[in-house]
Amino acid sequence: MPRDGRPSLSQFQAFLPTFLTALPSAECAKGGAGAYSDALQRSHASPHASAAQASADAAAATTTAAVQGGGSVSGLDRGVVSASTFRTYYTPLSRQEDFIDAMASVRAFTDHMRETLGLDVYSYSLFHIFFEQYLTIAADGAWMLAAPFAAITLTTALLTGSAAAALILALHLASLTAHLLCAMLLAGMQLNAVSLVNLVMALGIAVEFHVHILHAFCVASGGRPARASAALCSMGASVLSGITLTKMVGVAVLAGAATQIFEVYYFRLYLALVILGAAHGLVLLPVCLSLAGPPSWAQEPAQARRTQDRGGLRSDRGVRQLCGGALQSP
């Protein structure tokens, strides 16, 4: 052993495989088979190794002992460690916020070590798989809701030919989404991958509560209050019976689900969707249309004809005046 107490490269190469295969016992309580047998990369487990490195590791395998049948340590013959793992410990974690904060802290630590050492360092723990979604849930939720929201608004504007109708629908969908988020908070639902997917689906289902009333308002004739009343009379019963009540029956089946995820994240959310969607489509939307609804499709051609007729009449009068003036000028 050298004077500084650290083994030389040859000693390290000779005794490391033995240490990794040694089981802890009364004679040697520091055997590394239990804690460190998988801490170093094996030669045959290096997918990015070059041909020269593979041949060198194969030669090293004949001079060093195999580690539990898993091959020699990758890079041991060159005195380097190709890849390794080391254990860390968390303080006791009991709440969901504790797990999320712990994962965020260890991610920040590994990012700092990666920048400082210039090595590819990453962290892993079993609970990371389940809580990783919460690190980016706000950004993912904003994107997943904004994309279908923009698609619905653009499609409405193209099919109706009215930017006002698309704007009214967009405002009602935004209001419904905000009410659903508040309902999730009151019902004890967290914003996670399951509830976010249900929110995106709810945004598409919410269109049914509005678009039929909006279309009936656009094709009706008369003033805004009369068209809103006509739209509600013609399509209100269909929206109530064909959309609201049918979805209510389908959602009620989930009320007695034994699995909590179905009772909480599906029954409660879709029940809130049906109630709030019917309130927005059958109560709030007709009121808004009666106050600031888009122009009627039935009145636009007639108005255009009246404008054209008035323009032709003004032109005919101008010609007669001009001709009369010309005849009277002598």
- The helix/strand series, from N terminus to C terminus, equals HHHHHHHHHHH
Main sheet? none
Average residue-wise pLDDT: 80
Continuous helix count: 11
Structural class category = mainly alpha
The total count of strands amounts to 0
Shape: elongated
Low-confidence stretches: 45-70, 311-330
Helix content: 55-70%
The proportion of strand residues reads under 5%
Radius of gyration: 36 Å
Termini separation (Å)? 133 Å
Textual characterization of the structure:
The protein has eleven helices and no strands. The protein is mainly alpha-helical and about 325 residues long. Residues about 45-70 and about 310-330 have low confidence and may be disordered. Helix 9 packs antiparallel against helix 10. The chain is elongated, with a radius of gyration of 36 Å.
SSE blueprint and pairings:
Elements (H helix, E strand, L loop, with lengths): L8 H13 L11 H4 L14 H13 L32 H22 L10 H4 L5 H24 L2 H24 L6 H27 L4 H29 L7 H33 L6 H30 L2
Helix pairs in contact: 6-7, 6-8, 7-8, 7-10, 8-9, 8-10, 9-10
Keywords:
mainly alpha; 330 residues; 11 helices; elongated; disordered C terminus; single chain
